[in-house]
Amino acid sequence: MTIVADKHNFPLVLIGILSDTHGAGEAASAAVALLLKEGAAHLIHCGDVGSPSVLDALANDVPAAFVWGNTDHDRTALRRYATALKIQCFDTFGELDLAGKRIAVTHGDDAQLVRGVLAEQQHDYLLVGHSHVREDRRVGRVRVINPGALYHASEKTVALLDAARDELRFLTVRW
Question: What is the β-pairing status of strands 101-106 and 93-98?
Answer without folding.
Answer: antiparallel
